């Protein structure tokens, strides 16, 4: 059932102003691009608050917002696990432990790090899976955007697909990563400007927090919809055990995604120095703790205000229904702009990750080496155009085969788990050999694929989709570890000197100190701020145990 | 390049003013949201002027 919004000229004016600004940023950024480093990593010159908000925004796509509100309707307060244990600890770990290796090794991408630590084959394997995944995810994003626009505003599907693709294409081709990042920061504030009034009005309507709690108790979720851990040893809305939540969601899935996904790590690599790059995911962790207030909470409000959930009413309609019934024209335009902007920011993150990995790790590393910098800048721009074109193609395929696209997207979420295993062994065990990197990653990826296909074909039964992803990722992780260790024992390691700066305990001799004045202050300490984010997550869990 | 704080501030000031005008003509929600956005936008503009890059 589609939810149609009553948008008027005022709303369209607000939407138009936003996109004029976005294109303006692209044009302004273009003047400052003179090298491929400017294009792919924003010249490594951004302050931590900008890269931090971009880091958060790259993951705050509209699919995420609508999806987490949908989970809020379906599972209630337990949905915060996706944020508080499923994201924050991994983001802090990335900042404190892993960013120094990524940033100080001066690599431009995650696959490039794999080449330095292991070999070219490992780089190529990761680059190809990543590039293919980004294109498919960009296409799925674009298709989801078109579906929402068709439902909410009545725009025909092909029009939304082409218009949004052209806007994303324009600002990335012009301004590269800096314009993607600047737009992500802008989008973060605009989506909040739409979601905060929505949540406040919703809360007023249901009688405040206590009124909401009373009404949730009377729904099918019952008391379980108001707790996070209390029911996780027995019956709970998610049907998940606390062991699965801690190890599956909190460790394997979350650490895999946040620490190795280049579309995220790229934001931190564009920071101005090592300290700013370490602070990037940690600064993002604080708003991440609060995002459920404008996604999960509205979902729970929608649960009690509307009925027919899971039957006549699609869970994904939670936010659109609230927008329709609570927001007047004006604020409604801001909220629609926020949704459109977050769809495009999600796609821009995929495309800017794709163009960097394609140019750097596939084209420059394995096809055409040793050309001048201007050549690779051109390849990057062409890769952007090609990436968007392929994304549009994928969106139209997705329109015809919705299920296949859902499967593929779920499948790619498994691929990060083995990558994380390879990284973590490679960082802490200097004996791990180059070919162990390659075979471990390949075996882990194949294991992820096989377990997912076996689940879909009904050969393996994990109960729910959520449990299937916990177990699939877990199996992939373990297979990667076993194969990596086994191959290490029969192949030769790299000489210690080549691994300086790439493994734990071997610092790079020539690494200069890039600290800026003021980096020593307490509010710029990654360890202190990171610990603060974890403590805050624990305190917030205490509030809704 | 152009200071992002100025872009964010400018956009929010403009949105704020539009919503305040719309709010004075009708819905109170627009007025409150508009005021909040204008204050937020103004703060970013001031920040970008006080501590230049």
Description:
The complex is a heterodimer of chains A (545) and B (53). With 545 residues, chain A is mainly α. Chain A has one domain: Sodium/glucose cotransporter. Helices cover 74% and strands 0% of the residues of chain A. Chain A has helices at residues 9-30, 36-41, 48-59, 62-75, 81-84, 88-104, 110-117, 120-153, 157-206, 208-217, 242-260, 262-269, 274-290, 292-305, 318-326, 331-367, 373-400, 402-428, 434-456, 465-490, 526-543. The longest helix of chain A has 50 residues, at 157-206. Chain A is globular. The model of chain A has no long low-confidence stretch (mean pLDDT 87). Chain B is built from 2 helices and no strands. Chain B has helices spanning 4-25, 28-50. Chain B has 53 residues and is mainly alpha-helical. Chain A binds chain B through residues 10, 13-14, 17-18, 21, 24-25, 28-29, 31-32, 50, 178, 182, 185-186, 189-190, 193, 197, 201, 327-331, 334, and chain B through 1-2, 4, 7-8, 11-12, 14-15, 18-19, 22-23, 26-27, 29-30, 32-34, 37, 40. Chain A: Belongs to the sodium:solute symporter (SSF) (TC 2.A.21) family. Chain A: It comes from Nonomuraea longispora. Chain A: It is a multi-pass membrane protein. Chain A: GO terms for molecular function: D-glucose:sodium symporter activity. Chain A: Its main location: membrane.
Helix content of chain A: over 70%
Q: Can you count the beta strands of chain B?
A: 0
Major sheet size, sense and barrel closure of chain B: none
Rounded Rg of chain A: 23 Å
The CATH architecture of chain A comes to Up-down Bundle
Q: Please provide the ordered H/E string of secondary-structure elements of chain A.
A: HHHHHHHHHHHHHHHHHHHHH
Indicate the CATH topology of chain A.
Sodium/glucose cotransporter
Give helix and strand order of chain B, one letter per element, not per position. Answer: HH
Tell me the Rg of chain B in angstroms.
Answer: 12 Å
Q: Which secondary-structure class do the elements of chain B indicate?
A: mainly alpha
Q: How would a crystallographer describe the biggest sheet of chain A?
A: none
Estimate the mean pLDDT confidence of chain A. Answer: 87
